[in-house]
Write a structure and sequence with these properties.
One of its GO terms (molecular function) is DNA-binding transcription factor activity. By secondary structure, this protein is an alpha+beta fold. Helix content is 28%, strand content 32%. It starts with a strand and ends with a helix.
């Protein structure tokens, strides 16, 4: 049992969505886009991107890249890293722009700005995933119940 972001799952796994949240753009605070109330994917795609390393295996890589490609954009990747916190730090340092789920907006740095993305389908989901073929233990069942209870309270 585990938590995953949007990713292709094998048929041996069952899943339930526990979170759906907007994707947000991050830009350096001194960037002209930082003065806008929101930003389009087209505007972001013109900028150098700080992005996930495709070999790290994060579902966010496929999620965000897929969103950009659906709108006909291939980002100009200036830097690839393995962690979201590193992406945030590099955007704050002025190396480019990026996109992350709203969860990360908790990180507030004066050197960068978070912006809503204009496109309505700029969202990310988190799923609770478990094996279809293995009995869940008592602890896993309690975890699932607690998580689904939290979900019902926050939707």
């Amino acid at each position: 049992m585990g938590l995953l972001r949007n990713t292709q799952l094998p048929d041996t796994l069952a899943w339930e969505r526990v979170l759906r949240e907007p994707l947000l753009a991050m830009v350096p605070a001194n960037h002209p886009l930082a003065r806008q109330p929101s930003v389009s994917l087209t505007a972001l795609a013109r900028e150098p991107f700080v992005f996930f390393d495709p070999h790290v295996g994060t579902g966010l890589y496929d999620d965000i890249l897929g969103l950009l490609r659906r709108y006909g954009h291939t980002p100009k990747i200036a830097q690839e890293v393995g962690e979201a916190m590193t992406i945030i730090g590099l955007v704050a340092a002025g190396l480019g722009v990026s996109i992350l789920p709203a969860f990360f907006q908790r990180v507030q740095l004066s050197e960068m700005s978070w912006l809503p993305i204009d496109e309505q389908d700029a969202v990310s989901e988190m799923w609770l995933v478990w094996s279809k073929h293995h009995e869940q233990g008592a602890l896993a069942k309690r975890f699932r119940e607690a998580l689904l209870s939290w979900k019902s309270e926050h939707n």
